[in-house]
Design goal:
Order of helices and strands: HEHEHEHHEEEHE
Radius of gyration: 17 Å
Strand order of the largest sheet: 3-2-1-4-6-5-7
CATH class: Alpha Beta
Protein name: Adenosine 5'-phosphosulfate reductase
Number of strands: 7
CATH architecture: 3-Layer(aba) Sandwich
CATH superfamily: HUPs
Number of domains: 1
Pathway: Sulfur metabolism; hydrogen sulfide biosynthesis; sulfite from sulfate
Number of helices: 6
Family: Belongs to the PAPS reductase family. CysH subfamily.
CATH topology: Rossmann fold
Largest sheet: 7 strands, mixed
EC number: 1.8.4.10
Cofactor: [4Fe-4S] cluster
């Protein structure tokens, strides 16, 4: 089988990361440790170390995600800053709704996501000029209008989605060709990985995001990290 040629797209990634490092510092990669983010982790750790990385520990992540977090630290020698949710807010939510109250309604699920993800993200982005994500257009119907660059009005900084035009096959070609570590849940049919109680494996032919909040309609399947107002710039 012929190896997929991703050289042109990798070169474009280098050009964009050079631009960010030159014109948008301080910049950070919002690292979920998913397959897409591991492409960016590999490039940034090896070539653009001035770009910082952070991750959000919601308190409900799968063990495999923590294992990968440690592997990244050991292999690349980079410090991924970990942000945690406010303990008092979590205690109040659980007291009012139970530990799994997010299954009861979209409103309660989004409230849980806000506490565990959105509020910590705002702290992570404070004082930054740009943030980078691993989002791709083909991941979900909520992302089909994604652009490579846009101004995040809500967080008041530039937002970059360098892989927005990449296919899933191209992401995995990069990981395999460069021997990049990845979350072992991907080998168990978890194409998109979030909190453990809100993520399940998918069957062949299902949408890559169908395993996230599977009890909801596709149109509501975002946690709030990526639905703020933006001014698009191609």
């Amino acid at each position: 089988m012929n190896q997929l040629d991703i050289t042109p797209k990798v070169e474009q990634l280098h050009d964009l990361l050079k631009l960010i490092e030159r014109d948008y510092m301080p910049a950070v990669l919002a690292n979920s440790l998913g397959a897409e983010d591991m492409v960016l982790t590999d490039l940034i750790a090896r070539y653009y170390p001035a770009i910082a990385m952070f991750t959000l520990d919601t308190g409900r992540l799968p063990q495999e995600t923590y294992d990968l977090m440690q592997t990244v630290r050991d292999r690349y020698g980079v410090d991924i800053h970990v942000y945690f949710p406010d303990a008092a807010a979590i205690e109040d939510y659980v007291a009012q709704n139970g530990p799994n109250g997010f299954y009861q309604s979209v409103e309660l699920r989004k409230r849980c996501c806000f506490i565990r993800k959105v509020e910590p993200l705002r702290r992570a982005l404070a004082g930054k000029r740009a943030w980078i994500t691993g989002m791709r257009r083909e991941q979900a119907v909520t992302r089909d209008s994604l652009t490579i660059s846009s101004f995040d009005v809500e967080n008041n900084l530039q937002k970059f989605n360098p892989l927005c035009e990449w296919s899933n096959a191209e992401v995995w070609a990069y990981l395999k060709q460069h021997d990049v570590p990845y979350n072992k849940l991907h080998d168990r049919f978890y194409p998109s990985i979030g909190c453990a109680p809100c993520t399940r494996a998918v069957t062949p032919g299902e949408d890559v995001r169908s395993g996230r909040w599977w009890w909801e309609n596709p149109e509501s399947k975002e946690c709030g990290l990526h639905i703020g107002k933006v001014a698009s710039i191609k």
